[in-house]
Design a protein that fits this description.
This protein has two domains: about 160 residues, Lyase, Ornithine Decarboxylase, Chain A, domain 1 (Beta Barrel); about 250 residues, Alanine racemase (TIM Barrel), CATH 3.20.20.10. The strands form three sheets. Strands 4, 14, 15, 16, 17, 18, 19, 20 and 21 form a nine-stranded mixed sheet that branches. An eight-stranded parallel barrel has the order 5-6-7-8-9-11-12-13, surrounded by seven helices. It has about 425 residues and is an alpha/beta fold. It contains twelve helices and 21 strands. The chain is globular. Bound molecules: pyridoxal-5'-phosphate. The site of pyridoxal-5'-phosphate has 17 residues, from helix 10.
């Protein structure tokens, strides 16, 4: 988490961001991560299980950095992957295949083959049709595959529409009405073993209610299956625990699992509980540092004008894609008078707009966009012929790695090769 020292200087993981930004080998915009704090989040979440057998499957899509996945693997985490690329990162980073689950509505044949070959903990099937296809691929390979049903518990998460996944219209999961047909498909799938149930109802949930309701639906279903002779070894409660982007977040990640466990305790005994947190592990412990490039007087919308920075929607797309708001602050805060300004990026899209903020006048040279550790770099693109941002990793209070992004020159070469 970003901290300020007595002089108002922003620090992450103990490192002074102002000094980092002024290093000759670091140029803006760049992401910076406090990896120790991410591992700390996983440890704090584990406490929510209160000694019960569990596995935290870090949802890698939030931040796919090998360094972060490696550290989480060392701390005992598994992974939730949604593509072969993510799986290869996890295997390469030392996550045991027996701790990896694979979600996704459209896994290709090649991906199913890779999942079967790697002997993952579970392929989370998201449709009846996928069950039959997975069985055929496993049979062709002469192997057995472990499968779970990712059910859609028909729970409306109180979050942005684009990141709610557990309601009736969502493309994710097996609708409750299709669970019967899914079991029929499994009965005629000799190469598959049903090992569990999972659900994931949405992202950035700030209260535990929907998480608990989904857990109750899944637990009730597990009890039905048990009475029909299906012995399930895992119940996966999903991810979606929110973080505080500046407007507060009433529940800590451990509260979600603790509340779900309390709710399902009398319903079913499960061998092992899983959860799939992404954002809550990495989000608050990353920041995007950007430089002010240009200001522009403008009398619209009750502001003093635009402030254009060198980070754009290609670096951090959440504001453009989800209407998300990140706190944007000077790297060093002081007592200069504040002015209301609109912060925009350089990309030629009207949606490349971070929103309205109070910033000091005169404008500082460097700004920090807070809580950018999740769905930041992983969603970055080179749209508009822009570079991919650099990433800086902090561990043990020092910078342990600086990874330059992909330069605009490399982008130009790649495009010229077409
Ligand atoms: C994205 C995703 C997650 C992680 O969601 P967060 O909100 O980042 O915790 C977990 N499970 C599945 C299946 C996902 O698609």
């Amino acid at each position: 988490m970003l901290e300020r020292d007595a002089e108002g200087r922003a620090r992450l993981g103990g490192v002074l961001l102002e000094s980092l930004a002024r290093r000759p080998d670091v140029s803006t915009p760049f992401y910076v991560y406090d990896v120790d704090a991410m591992v700390g989040e996983a440890r704090a979440l584990a406490a929510g299980f209160d000694g019960r057998a569990h596995l935290i499957c870090y949802a890698v899509k939030a931040n796919t950095s090998g360094r972060i996945v490696r550290r989480l693997a060392l701390a005992g985490c598994g992974a939730d992957v949604v593509s072969q690329g993510e799986l290869e990162v996890c295997l390469g980073a030392g996550v045991e295949p027996g701790k990896i689950v694979w979600s996704g509505v459209a896994k290709t044949d090649a991906e199913l083959d890779r999942a079967i070959g790697a002997e993952l903990l579970s392929v989370h099937a998201e449709s009846v049709e996928e069950i039959s296809r997975l069985d055929a691929r496993a049979r062709a390979a002469g192997k057995r595959a472990s499968v779970s049903l990712r059910v859609n518990p028909s729970v409306e998460a109180d979050t942005h529409a684009s990141i709610a996944t557990g309601h009736d219209e969502a493309k994710f999961g097996i609708p409750l009405a299709e669970v019967g047909p899914a079991l029929d498909a499994l009965a005629s799938a000799p190469s598959l073993s049903l090992v569990g149930l999972s659900s994931h109802v949405g992202s950035q949930m700030t209260r535990v209610d929907e998480y608990v309701r989904a857990a109750l639906v899944v637990a009730g279903l597990a009890r039905d299956l048990a009475s029909r002779g299906h012995r399930l070894s895992l119940l996966d409660l999903g991810g979606g625990m929110g973080i505080d982007y500046g407007e507060g977040c009433g529940a800590r990640p451990a509260d979600f699992v603790a509340a779900a466990i309390r709710a399902i305790e009398g319903v079913i005994e499960v061998e092992r509980l899983l959860c799939e947190p992404g954002r809550s592990i990495v989000g608050a412990h990353g920041a995007l540092v950007t430089r002010v490039v240009q200001s522009k007087r403008w009398s619209g919308r009750d502001t003093a004008g635009w402030v254009f920075v060198d980070a754009g929607m290609n670096d951090l797309v959440r504001p453009a894609m989800y209407g998300a708001r990140h706190r944007i602050e000077p790297l060093t805060s002081g007592d200069a008078p504040l002015a209301r300004v609109r912060v925009g990026g350089p990309v030629c899209e009207s949606s490349d707009d971070f929103g309205t903020y109070e910033l000091p006048t005169p404008l500082p040279e460097l700004l920090v966009i807070r809580d950018a550790g999740a769905y930041g770099f992983t969603m970055a693109s080179q749209y508009n012929g822009r570079a991919l941002p650099a990433e800086v990793f902090i561990e043990g209070g020092v910078v342990t790695s600086i990874v330059p992004g992909v330069s605009a020159a490399d982008w130009a070469r790649a495009r010229l090769a077409t």
